[in-house]
Amino acid sequence: MKMTTLGKDGPAVSQFGLGAMSFAGIYGDATEAESHAVLDACREAGVTHIDTANVYGNGRSEEITGAWFAKRSGARQEMVLATKAGITGQSDRRFNNDPDYLEAELDKSLARLGTDYVDLFYIHRYDRSHEPEELGGTLKRLIESGKTRAVGLSEVAPSTLRRVSTECPVAAVQSEYSLSTRAPELGMIQACAELGAALVAFSPVGRAFLTDAPFSFERGESMAFTKGNPRFMAPNYAANIAATDRFRELASEMGEPAAALAIAWTIAQGDHVIPIPGTKNTDHLAELIRGTEIDLSEDDLLRIEIALPVGWAHGDRYNAAQWEGPERYC
Q1: What are phi and psi of 247, to 5 degrees?
Q2: What is the domain-level CATH number for residue 56?
Q3: 292, part of any domain
Q4: CA angle at residue 109 from 28 to 20, to 5 degrees?
């Protein structure tokens, strides 16, 4: 398993993590047994990073992860554990970065996870009622409390990262990044490298478009997130399947699963880039982990770029409601 560090002075961590949102039924139901089997397979493969959040299934993902730690001796000490807070789910105030609120939510997460601390605590969405420097002070105090060893930001602009970093070191920034969504190349990858932060890439297989078995249009219509997402709506869905067929053909020519090739491409973008795909299936997990074993040549990267040139995707990555919270910077 390829290793990197989580932040400039952070712990060694596998350059591949597990996104535990799938445990919460976001893309269909997942049982605790299925989720624990995935975590067991990660542990066996040397994956040492687990990423969850308080809002994934209203704490369900954290509860499943905490139950796994309780049943597996030594597992908590082996894992670099991340969680997040800042999305309230309320209609009147959807995002909250108030110091008392964040610490209270972290306390609830620690109880669900069955641990005294997390290794990384993210602000899930930046609340613009606070200046970034003020938020940096809040994050510094959370580290000083001992409840988290490091802090991160999610879906922010490079300028926000830089301003928060003047008050507190930021170990990681979480952004959607893949062959489908390449906006981080316009400033975020560079800012993270400059400041010594990891870029933690969620949805690195394009929400299934970059796999050998993307889910059907009908299944997308049955899930809350994809039902109203522009890339999964007609006519964009069919156009995106047709575009990614080229990528699947290339993966087949190279003798690799498409998901593995997508993960390998993401890792190739920098030693500080950490993909965190999610799955509730151990066979799919094996394909994803295979990506950590592939060393892409310059010729391989060129062939991938020809198959899926930057800007190929049809439709925005979010609809208007989904864009509430993430910062646009390009």
Answers
A1: -70, -40
A2: 3.20.20.100
A3: yes
A4: 30
Specify the pLDDT at position 90: 66
Catalytic annotation, pick one of 27, 56, 177, 318? 56
* Phi, then psi, of 59 in degrees rounded to 5: 95, -10
pTM value surpassing 0.85: yes
Q: Which amino acid is at 167?
A: E
Range of the domain at 80: 3-206+257-297
**Mean pLDDT in the chain?**
95
Residue 117 has which token pair?
Answer: 């601390």
Neighbours of 81 (CB within 10 A): 26
User: How far apart, in whole angstroms, are the C-alpha atoms of residue 145 and residue 103?
Assistant: 9
The alpha carbon of 286 is separated from its chain's Cα centroid by a whole number of angstroms, namely: 18
Percent of the chain past pLDDT 70, that is, above it, reads 99
Q: Does 101 participate in catalysis according to the annotation?
A: no
Asked if residues 306 and 299 have their Cβ atoms less than 8 Å apart, the reply is no
Answer whether residue 328 is part of any domain.
no
